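Sync notes, pocket subgroup
Present: LS, DG
LS reminded everyone that the earlier model was apo-only. Rerun requested with beta-D-galactopyranose included. Inputs:
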Amino acid sequence: MKKSLLALSVVAASFALFGCNKPAEAPKTAAGETKTAAELPKIGVVIYKGDDNFMSFVRNAIEKAGAGKAAVSVLDSQNDQAKQNGQIDALIAKGVKALAVNLVDPAAAASIVSKATAAKIPVIFFNKEPAADVLKGCAQCWYVGTTSSESGVMQAKIIADSLKAHPEWDKNKDGKIQFVLLKGEPGHPDAEARTKYVLEEMSKAGLKPEQLELQTGMWETAKANNLMDAWLAKHGDKIEYVIANNDGMALGAINSLQAKGYFKDPSKFMPVVGVDAIPDALAKIKEGTMVGSVLNDAKNQGAATVELAINAALGKAPTEGTAWKLDESKSVRVPYVNINKDNLQLAEDVYKK
Ligand code: GAL
Ligand code: CA
């Protein structure tokens, strides 16, 4: 008797347990995705400036790579570091399990690291590289980006190759290349390295670059358009090459040149080179108004950022089960690729929506 009562109560208890589980399971199946989404690791992403051309492609790549694998919230920091700090506080309060941070100001990395560390939340910095010692000093921090200098070196190669094919672009035949340079945001590791390395490598290639102008267009098309207007008014055809730290600014320079009658016929040509290989620039390369660009691989940078963030959120090693490798500075560096009219397809594929 006693035995069977015990047996009964065990059965009853297991029914009770099962019964408890069952209602929790059932709505999940019925509710489908909503329930599943709530169970995905929450990742908070902040982007320095939502209307930055290249970053809009990185954002797309992040959302695409995260779909179905993480609950990703992306916030636009509107180029305001104080705003970004507030967004990070809010994301931490919301319970995100990892942060992906595209800094407004590279110098703000340390304070973000202390917030995240206090909340025990890992951080994947991306696109704007924080100082090496900040990454080193934070156990749960990594970086996804590029080797900035590489883009300057590769841009110089495009310039050197183009001048070999077109010696007539040395218009005044003085054996030097009179250039204007549109620089990205000062202090941004990409802007600094691209500027330094493109000029150094041009010199190494014996091109004798001679600077007519060098100013920041802050990565922006409109600012670059204005600068180019002023430079054309001042130097006109003394300018032999337009070097831009990114395509957004190269496109601004091309707008300005077109408004002044350039590119209408082959006698009125100005070589312009950029970095990023965004679709609008590829169209210019195709039509022949831009010499080339260096592919900044938005798709793989976005994917690597999300994949590392998901692993970190789940407490795994950041690159576990991925194709990415960390270098000695805890960084994944996606390679740049030189793009000219012969291999446009490669960049078109990367930027396909
Ligand atoms: C660079 C990119 C620029 C701009 C900048 C923003 O890597 O080439 O176009 O997006 O990042 O941080
Ligand atoms: Ca010259």
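DG: DSSP finds 13 helices and twelve strands in the chain.
LS: Residues 48, 52, 54-55, 127-128, 184, 188, 190, 219, 246, 248, 275-276, 296 surround beta-D-galactopyranose (ligand 1) (CB under 6 Å).
Action: DG to write up.
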